[in-house]
Amino acid sequence: MTQKKVFAQPNITTPSRPVIFNTKICNGCNRCVEVCPVDVYIPNPQKGQSPIILHPDECWYCGTCVNECPTAEAVKFNWPLQQRGYWKRKATGEIFRV
Known about the structure:
The chain starts with 18 loop residues before the first strand and ends with a strand. Strands 1-4 form a two-stranded antiparallel sheet. It is of the alpha+beta class. The protein contains two helices and six strands, in the order E-H-E-E-H-E-E-E.
């Protein structure tokens, strides 16, 4: 009897994506996996691939993964809408987000 490989499936209860990995830049070093205080990620079983976000709803948005990433712009925060900053132009009254 052959053993069937089972990979971890992300626990997606909401459309939450706390971070977005740029797969073209991320080299799969797993530094974010090591420094995450709440273990949101697990290493990808395919070497050189971005980590798997296993528990997206557990993310504290602390920024450790983004700050500790050795590859610039490989990890980007996807802040919840209510936590995103916005600005209002004094001259026109226009409200905008970055």
